[in-house]
Amino acid sequence: MITHAAGPSGSLPLSDEILRNWSSGDLFGLTQSVGMGYDPRRVLGDQYLILSTQGGLREPDGTATALGYHTGHWEIGLLVRAAAEQLSANKAVPFAAYCSDPCDGRSQGTRGMFDSLPYRNDAAIVFRRLIRSLPQRKGVIGIATCDKGLPAMMMALAGSPALACVLVPGGVTLPATVGEDTGKVQSIGVRYTRGEMSLEEAALEGCRACGTPGGGCQFLGTAATSQVVAEALGMTVPHAALAPSGLPIWTQMARQSAAASMQMVAHGTTIGDVLTDDSLYNAMLIHAAVGGSTNLLLHIPAIAAAAGLKRPDADAFSRINRSVPRFVDCLPNGPVGHPTVRFFLAGGVPEVAWHLREMGLLRSDARTVSGMTWDEILDGWFDSDRRRFCRERLAESDKVDPDDVIVPPARVAAKGLTPTVCFPFGNLCPEGSVIKATSIDPEVIDDDDVYRKRGPARVFTSERDAIAAVKGQREPAIKAGDVIVLIGRGPLGCGMEETYQITSALKYLSFGKHVALITDARFSGVSTGACVGHVGPEALAGGPIAKVRDGDLIEIEINRATLEGTVNLIESNDGKPAAEVFEQRSPHPDLAVEKDIPDDTRLWAALQQVGGGAWGGCVYDVDEIVETLRAGMEARAAKRLTQD
Q1: From 107, 279, 293, 524, active-site residue
Q2: Which residues form the Dihydroxy-acid/6-phosphogluconate dehydratase N-terminal domain (predicted)?
Q3: Is 318 a catalytic residue?
Q4: What are residue 106's phi and psi, to 5 degrees?
Q5: What's the pLDDT tens digit per position in 82-97?
């Protein structure tokens, strides 16, 4: 053991101007840099911060020393290294900082889900604080992959409008050569419990779903959709979203991203120049064209708010979804449901954008972090070597025609592709709700392309009770024809948990297509079926859904062609009309805030409610929060004076 050491050799390259004008913090930062082993001759180079959601600890050969929470942050260190090497090769000084992220799949059905959506806001705050805490940074390269870490990173970069920020999506894991995808495999418990698969089958499928150790899931869920939206916003270099994790094309993208940040600094451009009303429109347009996760209805407004742009509301999303067909056939949507790596190889976001420009819908003069507008990117895309190589690789390796994955829009009707997101209203959701219309099983759609459902309500105030009834472990068990009504699961109740264990069970159980779900919770991006979420107002905010009881007659109608829909209580279980029910009934007697909700989540829920709640993106509107607190404090002070 030693108690002192010699310290770094050499000397700092200081000057009279530096010593007189730099802050003590800037000078001490140089001391810290060489103390960590950095060459003192290089410390005055331009500083760039590489932020990431890296998790776990890998050996150089890739084996696990300490596990991460999920594959999505497992290999991100390789992207950090590639970006840092690019910066160092150009005489810049790379810094790296981390804020890891949870796994929504790992926390499904557990109390961990109470922290999932609130984490996004917390991580965005941490990322912004890390950015501001490196005072001399010229640019920021943000590397993230999955459901909450990636939206948080986008919020953080969007909230740094004066910097040269570039986002690096962490790509996707490959599907297993034989076996189920990571969406379907999450239903092995309920299928086994219902006797629809054996113990041996469950054990095998649960083991082999991840074809590679890194990257986001193989379906166009929230993680993959967030990558697509990031590129659509112009925050990434071209053809970055959904790259196969761990391959050379993936790490090359990190190098290109670091170079793009340096180029932005050289040209005096910033992420604030990229994020505009036009780029926001393009993100919503491409989200609709690919059939993306409904969770982006929470994240896109949050990113807009961070960028100082007007937050889109349900009407804005609805208008865009009605204006563009879905022409990407990717899991969990059909009719085939290709894995995300095929979407990338078929051309990814540039291919989708090219079709949208041909249709006259893309705002193609919007700028991107590459320094090019979408017009400039797309002018060279169609005949590019990259496009040709990727599409040929898809045809050769998987024997799949790229035009069957990203379908030319003129062929979507013949291919059976339908639009995606519908925003039903009705007496149970006067502020609106969300359903993925494209993912309702075709067998329960009428000939006029309308889903019609009338059935008795089965009301639950906890997801645990609902999934037990779906599994047949709670009587009466859920059966064909039922309408599950799950309430008190919005932000105020439990942090707006994700209910994928229910939606996946309904998808993969033989009778599940004949059951509907209505809830004030949210859904996983891979959810499918007749599942209506984001019901507003939520039950604990006075929403009428709080007054539904077992046996009440519920009616759902979703027009998949026009993307119009309604969700209504028709009559009570004893035949009273809906108007009388809403006037006379009190909220469900079991409705309450989750007893195990963390205080951190309660605080998040209260603050986001002031900022507009779920339909406002669950963000913190600081001015509105401060004004509300001031008014509340004044009211309480006045009340005390009156009492005295």
Answers
A1: 524
A2: 69-376
A3: no
A4: -65, -30
A5: 999 999 999 999 999 9
